[in-house]
Amino acid sequence: MAFRRIITMAKVYEMGGVIPVIDPTSFVHPDAVIIGDVIIGPNSYIGACACLRGDLGRIVISAGANIQDTCVIHSFPEVDVIVGENGHVGHGAILHGCTIGRNALIGMNAVVMDHAVIGENSFVAAMAFVKSGMTTGANMLIGGMPAREIRPLEKEEITRKAQGTLLYQWLAAQSKVSMREAEPLTEAEPDRGRVSPPP
């Protein structure tokens, strides 16, 4: 029988007497690194190899947000990074000293710099570079290097994003109860199952 152990603990570090806070309903992958003044709210998902480094400024991940694999979040003294409720931060993104509005989406490998504010329901395109101090409106598509507001988002686009965020909330709950370390099989079983999210 293959070795299996439920995954229970991320790499969490106290810094300067400040211990990270992780709501028990959230899932933080054991290969994520959480340091110092980090507050992770309920029903959030923190992916593998994400680094949330609250060793200078505070990091707040609000309820229902997801920070996907290999994201880096950091700041500098007295400046908070805030990811608003149901925020969606794609693989490899970097957030530094910025505020991400409620239900906003940050695309894969995008960079959002110091004192930038991304409006609620807005999307930052993959690979975009949001300059320090940029403030965007709500419901906007933002893209480019440097980034600019491209156009207002359609209601259907915002709805699709919300569905994707719900999928990550399901993934957080599912990961807590079903993700376990395992020895790999040497070949796929003939009746191999699939990970099946709700329809």
UniProtKB/TrEMBL annotation:
List the keywords (alphabetical). Answer: Acyltransferase, Transferase
Q: Where is the stretch described as Disordered?
A: 177-199
Q: Which InterPro entries match?
A: Hexapep, Transf_Hexapept/Carb_Anhydrase, Trimer_LpxA-like_sf
Q: Which GO terms describe its molecular function?
A: acyltransferase activity
Task: Tell me what this protein is called.
Answer: Acyltransferase, left-handed parallel beta-helix (Hexapeptide repeat) family
Q: Which organism is it from?
A: Geotalea daltonii (strain DSM 22248 / JCM 15807 / FRC-32) (Geobacter daltonii)
- Which SUPFAM superfamilies has this protein been placed in? Trimeric LpxA-like enzymes
State which residue ranges cross the membrane.
none
Comp. bias (Basic and acidic residues)? 178-199
Q: What is the lineage of its organism?
A: Bacteria, Pseudomonadati, Thermodesulfobacteriota, Desulfuromonadia, Geobacterales
CDD domains xref list: LbH_paaY_like
